[in-house]
Design brief:
single chain; about 0% strand; mainly alpha
């Protein structure tokens, strides 16, 4: 029987590490890649709904979507700021 709980804890730890280092260092693209990768790996586990780890997997996935959305928000905001600051004025 796979140890889903241990794998999920590993994904969560990677997410927390990225939050604690990459986001705080404004390395948003790298943080986004970590969140996306961890989410894909969590999904690939294919935890059956009847397994006790399923609820934890859904909670982790929701958290990862939240982190991804936040990183995208920052990256898009920066992209817009760069675009508008470099647009010709006149």
């Amino acid at each position: 029987m796979p140890d889903y709980q241990a794998r999920l804890k590993d994904f969560e730890q990677r997410t927390d590490d990225a939050l604690g280092s990459l986001e705080q260092d404004n390395r948003w693209a790298e943080a986004l890649a970590v969140y996306h990768s961890a989410g894909g790996e969590a999904d690939a586990l294919g935890i059956p709904k009847a397994d006790p780890a399923y609820k934890e997997a859904r909670r982790l996935r929701a958290y990862l979507y939240l982190r991804e959305a936040n990183a995208l928000r920052v990256l898009i905001s920066r992209s817009r700021a760069t675009y508008f600051s470099s647009a010709p004025h006149g």
